[in-house]
């Protein structure tokens, strides 16, 4: 057989094979499409995402502060759902039909085959109805999830924070590998700051379903399922008993309390009042209740410990002492004449009394304004700013909560921007010397400042979390805290601390809180408020000889520092040092001293 014949035979065979393949392809894709489509549908797989329980939150003694409870979440799988049932479903769960339609319309692509979370925390009556009508209500089901609850006698609203459904904007901003429509995410407080630890790892459960959408059992005997891993637990430094006590002290007040262990920055209690009930965010929040909360003129959602920017009043005077000493404008024995008032230009700045020639220790004890008016002019704006920065003002402390303010520490650049290049006068410094004027600080900055003073210059980042414990591996992650040394001579700290000691234990403005068992040191402050009563401040620590607790108390519109803030701060310190066994608070324990 010659080559030409073999060539034609080969071509013929090739054409024949091609015809056979095309014929079979047409048969499979066109003739038998319905038959095989049905068989394919019989073998459909539904993926159910299993949301892990969030990690628990404990106090320093192992008491559970934030726990989980089981809850049922109503779901709809868009691909299987008969939209003619929308009114029945909306009536069943008491939701607007348009709201449900909107949620279902957002399910794109493969999400149509997965359950969409419609409403959380549905009751057992609804579950029973779903079970009785599951053959008719195709695509309608429920999932078991966990919701937060708080088994303690205090609120801790601004500490723990709350979770809420992730927004479309947040979904767009994240990488798409974890969160889905309807997921809960930490929105405020510790819940938000430690979200990546608390949320855990999602699991997937694969279920085989028939052509009618009925579940026929685990796909591949569950061998392809991925088990959810619960979130990590947080162990806080918070003292639950002290927190409860502090919240009771502030129950009808407006303001803030924060107490820390100055040796390591651990937060012992943290109160911002007014506050709110976190449980209103658990489950499906009531829109009216949420709207009322956020429109409340008392601003209960506002965190007064980390977000306020009030002038600190006379609690700033230790800062002025360090600026004067560090810049070399005064020494620990230098004296300044305090005659009862101070004339600068055409304005007279008043004082509480005339004290003669006094040094910084005496000036702190009696809170002599004239001493600090003059000292502020001596040190100038640049030293004022630089030493203020050294003690953490004008910057965030790094507390493990979101949305902390950096406050306002004015500088020459700031005044040039506000008033024009070199168009502002030195008169602005006079008020700054006593913690007034453009200066703005937060209580968390103030407690970090007083902690650094009592620890002879060791400034430590305040923090709630001691360690993070992985529930699955039991591995512990110790939180790394930033500390730094403020490089000033020890004699400067000794002189300033002696003044703070005399404020309470001498003839000073807080002698009303002197305690026979624990030696308290501190400083009162009264910040002028153009919109109402003055703000009451106190910063202090105890015991004086070996500090174990430092406190800042701010009372909004509460009057003199010794009238409101000082008694509360003393009560907090004594309560903690006594092992939560002592209660010395007396609301009438007031000395009529203007500071």
Q: What features would you describe in this structure?
A:
With 595 residues, the chain is α+β, with helices and mostly antiparallel strands. The protein has 3 domains: 3-31; 46-236, Penicillin-binding protein 2a (Domain 2) (Alpha-Beta Complex); 240-273 and 306-577, Beta-lactamase, CATH 3.40.710. 33% of the residues lie in helices and 21% in strands. The protein is built from 19 helices and 23 strands. Strands 2, 3, 4, 5, 10, 18 and 19 form a 7-stranded mixed beta sheet that branches. A 5-stranded antiparallel beta sheet has the order 12-11-23-22-21, with helices on both faces. Strands 1-8-9 form a 3-stranded antiparallel beta sheet. Helix 10 runs antiparallel to helix 19 (565-577). The longest helix has 29 residues, at 3-31. Mean pLDDT is 90; it is low at 35-42.
CATH class of the largest domain: Alpha Beta
* Proportion of strand residues: 15-25%
| Fourth-level CATH superfamily of the largest domain | DD-peptidase/beta-lactamase superfamily
- The share of residues in helices is 25-40%
> Distance N terminus to C terminus?
121 Å
Count of DSSP strands: 23
Write down the domain tally.
3
Report the structural category: alpha+beta
- Mean residue pLDDT: 90
Overall form: elongated
Could you describe the largest sheet, including whether it forms a barrel?
Answer: 7 strands, mixed
Q: From the coordinates shown, what is the CATH architecture of the largest domain?
A: 3-Layer(aba) Sandwich
- Contiguous low-pLDDT stretches (5 residues minimum) are 35-42
